[in-house]
Design a protein that fits this description.
The chain is an alpha/beta fold. Among the domains are: 3-170 and 366-381, Glycogen Phosphorylase B (Rossmann fold, 3-Layer(aba) Sandwich), CATH 3.40.50; 178-362, Glycogen Phosphorylase B (Rossmann fold), CATH 3.40.50.2000. Helices cover 49% and strands 11% of the residues. It has 27 helices and 23 strands. The chain has a seven-stranded parallel beta sheet with strand order 3-2-1-4-5-6-7, with helices on both faces. It has a six-stranded parallel beta sheet with strand order 10-9-8-11-12-13, sandwiched between helices. It has a two-stranded antiparallel sheet with strand order 14-15. It is elongated, with a radius of gyration of 30 Å.
Length: 757
Amino acid sequence: MKTIYIGTYPPRRCGIATFTQNLLKAMSGKDDSHKSKKGFFVVAMNDFDQEYDYPEEVVFTIRQENQRDYQEAAEYINLSGADCCILEHEFGIFGGRNGVYILSLLHRLKIPLIVTLHTVLKTPSYDQKEILQRICRTANRVVVMSHHAVEFLEDIYDVPKEKIAYIEHGVPDYKFSQPEAKKEFKLDKRKVLLTFGFVSRNKGIETAIKALPEVVKKHPEVLYVVLGKTHPHVLHYVGEEYRNYLIQLVSELDLENNVVFIDKFASQPELFKYLYAADIYLTPYLNEAQITSGTLSYAVGVGCPVVSTPYWHAVELLADDRGILFDFSNHAQLADILIDLLDHPEKRLRLSRNAYEYGREITWPKIGAKYNNLVKEVTAEQLKIPRKKSIPFDIKILPPFSLAHVKRLTDHTGIIQHTKFGIPNLKEGYCLDDNARALIMALMAYKETKSQKALEFCPVYLSFIYYMQNDNGTFHNFLNFDRTFVEEQGSEDSFGRAIWALGYMLDNAPNDSYSQIGKYMLDKSVPVFDNLRSVRSIANVILGISYYLKNNMGDDVMIERLRKLTAFLVEEYRQNSHADWKWYEILFAYDNGLLPLAMLHAADILKDEEVQRIAFESMQFLSDITLKEGYLSIIGNEKWYHREDTRSDFAQQPVDAMCMVLMFYQAYKMTDNIDYLKKLFASFMWFLGENDLRLNLYNYETEGCFDGLERDGLSRNQGAESTLAYLISYLVVLEAHEEYYSKDWQQHQTDNLTSNG
């Protein structure tokens, strides 16, 4: 029976990778001496754009943050002839917020699915719970490795009991002699305490080190071996900060002769030699939230006496006198336990025998047999994965997402507003408008793709906005390259765009410092709201307030501000609209989609039927004019479109396309009407040549966007405004794609419940 696995895989150094490889070997009945594992294949996850020299069983790779790879992987699996798919799930190895990208793959599968959950959170965030629930609904079986995980799935995630399979973590069946292992590592004269695995703060290694001074007083021959490299994600973000802290702690406690750090990712045979050499194995984790520990399973499997804190997996695995538990962070209690075990070898022997006896039942061959039986069950049941309705658009035609041109335009001050062709035009400096849009784009890019480059851009744009704010809450708009202001106070429109950016950030802030400064600037600006008269400025402010209120619905003062500003647009609509003209002004100008977009957001927050009616009515009127041929034909700004006149076809601006994309996405989220998704994608395709001139505005060479469509062709400059409009639109397409799959799947579940009721 052909089985295909999705997960990380060696040579990537990751606990999930090792697990996937061991499971494949166990199910195929092949060990390292057999190169061919016929019928068993792997779709491997890559991280940080890294490539690995995989073995032959890896037949497809997925770049973690490349959304298209997930869809292509699903197509590959469906055409591979595989009978079953096994997914190794851990939040951190899949792309998108909380690993949401994996859903687009799973929902496309046409074969039975088994999911092994390596983490089941007791207190998940809303997104984490929603994603895991959807994964479990999609799966034919969900495998967990502890009884606590079974309880969590039933009680917290509402997973039916009959869908859950309990299969413990497997243990390689290595056998070594302790005297020989100690001799090989030159440890034959030492009493060895061992901790192994990726080094990170949650491992609590400092607790063990703090226990050692009392232990060493009585047993100076003790050596605590900490085996493992720093976790790659920890290393990526904070470097060796924790390891350096531990080394300093060892020095302060005068334990240099009793502690050794082996900074390496040990092979499995080498790792098990260390386990056999150990007299006591330690897992001093800092809290209970560890549902599965492969390292603990390994230690029990070889019969190593274990002393551990009472995290969930340890409480289960070390029951029945298979180990000893001590309280979290209690180094004094740990010291007493270690001294007692070192003083009484017969106690260590009893723990060892009990653990080893249990470990014989969880060797990988036995675990592999259980998984094989599970595969036979789900394939025999002929459970059908629901066929997806055809997606209203195909994201595989999108160019790769790139911030190259944004990087070209961004310096330490902010984003340069204009280019001469594709080269930054420093003579024209910076503007608030573009840096506000840039902040929105960077936050969206980080949310959707986890781009570290996007995250690095955020403080540049945010600090620019802060620098441009006046004491009275208004903003400068233009800044020369020498950082001198062009004017004392910018336009109402630039003010509004800054508020939109601040509100969006407050809904999507990556850390607390961003939230704090964002709220500071927003509060400072609030008094200016009363003086606004531009409909577009007010629309931008409405958007900013709406995003802010998503996480602050208890702010009654801001809700009233929103209501008042929305009432202004309602009145403008009433004054200017009639039977043949459903609009807020006597003309269509620029950023036209912005006005119904703002009203849609306001309606969603305020739950006001009149606001919602006007929003959809004006959106339809705009759509009828600009999408009547099936593609987006933006109203040009040569002379705009007056009510009693003909429309201007040129020059067409990218920001108008962006607002149309945003407008249709919000409409879809509020209605589930798939027609809005089709219009969203049609609007986006304006950038890729589906426009009046059939010219591609995206520049594949620079990875920027041309400034617009002129009567005689493209505006060849590639400034910040156009490039940001393209990138924001691109990211909305990605988000809409996932939203569609989320809502479509939820509808499928509802239909099932109705039909089975």
